[in-house]
Amino acid sequence: MSLVEARDLYRLYATAQGTAVALQGLSLDVRAGELLVVFGPSGSGKTTLLRILAALDRPTAGSVRVAQHDLRTLRGRALLEYRSRTLGYADQHYTRALAPELTVRELVGLRLALHGVDRGERNEAAEGLLERIGLADRAEAYPHELSGGQQQRVAVAAALAHRPQLFIADEPTGELDAANAKEIYALIRMLARDAGATTILVSHDPGAAAIADRVVQIRDGRVSAEDGAAVVNRGGWVRVPGLEEGARVRGSVEIDVEHARPTAAERAPSSGDVVARVANAAKAYGRQHVFSDVSLDVRAGAVTAVTGRSGSGKSTLLHMLAGLALPDAGEIEVLGRDVVALDETERALLRREHVGVVTQGGDLVPFLTAQETVELRVGDARRAREALAAVGLAELAQQRVSRLSLGERQRVAVARALAARPALLLADEPTARLDEENARAVGALFVHLARETGTAVVCATHDPALIAHASVELPLASLVA
């Protein structure tokens, strides 16, 4: 018996260049209790499918049912009931699900509290889940006191605490190293089985297949393969049921590093100079030590990969270089300026004028278009268009950020930083939302930028596809369990 039934799903979005297609005739059944893993490249339609199943979006054409619910017609109270009771959702940006003012016990029991479960019962249920995920001793901790892997475990437990019929996990290990990712996959399988939840897990990580009952591949908005049996679907122009005769929509895009080529005036005269320096830096949050005695010279024209397990301090080190965090001990210099000695305004000016920060796409304004997002940073429409073309988003330049897939938002964040031609570019897990092909292309793009402009690029990553492009690697030893 199928819990999820999707038939001939289409999802179209209007753009200045015409109509873009996210789904083009996707059909999929998921049996009750099944754990389905969905793979596919960035922009293939995975996130759009999940948004439709979460009733956060509606298909342009086709039908979709989850249990007894027709998701095309849900409105009002029925829609709220579906999202709060039938559905459990673990977002790839797991920190969004963790209210910073709540303890771990309160976070895991939050959905039960919203359902009216009394305090004693929900605390007992939360503590039982925390025991299952190995965090019983952290029940009174707050999210900022946990490592990335621990935060993700809490987010998964919180999403399954109310025993939903359908559990959706969107890239749940995108920000984690391989060892933590393996633990999260095992945890998802265990907790989903305990809850009796039908599970759909979207990922780029081949390791996710180890826990799957079934694997499907999505490409160009359709199922292209199932358990290794190919269903060939070519990209390009497609005809959509319900559109007027002759209407056409365009499929996926590719990254093109040639659009990142700078003008002669933008090229740095030399490479190899020290752009930023970290000397004997140490950082702790409360009693949790992140790292100590870290030193690094960041040179112009080079790509540096900061590696290590989740919780080892990769993001913290990038935040220090950006002046968003300060060390407890040691020195941080950027372009010869002592970052620690600068006040908050001076650090902000240094970032604006000389530093590009590539986030994981979570800070983008949803109602702005991709073009407006990049142009807001550089104030130049031409450079914004070129940067978007460099990351393969030329055809989606006029699309609102809220309509983009998470992988496409990631590339918008890369384009925003590239367009400013910074002296120092800091990229925090820039390929976490991308398939291997696009991850390698982004790595090549960073190398191209560094060589052509002299930009110093620092990436916090555990992605082998990106590490392979680095000329320098700084491994950080994890001090956080």
Radius of gyration: 23 Å
Provide mean pLDDT, rounded.
Answer: 83
Give a short account of the largest sheet: 7 strands, mixed
Terminal residue distance: 42 Å
Main β-sheet, spatial strand arrangement: 6-7-8-3-9-10-11
Count of separate DSSP helical elements:
14
**CATH topological fold name of the largest domain:** Rossmann fold
What is the architecture of the largest domain at the second tier of CATH? 3-Layer(aba) Sandwich
What's the helical proportion of residues? 25-40%
Amount of beta strand:
25-35%
CATH class of the largest domain reads: Alpha Beta
Low-confidence stretches: 230-255, 260-269
Identify the quaternary structure here.
Answer: single chain
CATH superfamily of the largest domain: P-loop containing nucleotide triphosphate hydrolases
The helix/strand class is alpha/beta
Principal-axes geometry comes out as globular
* Counted beta strands: 21
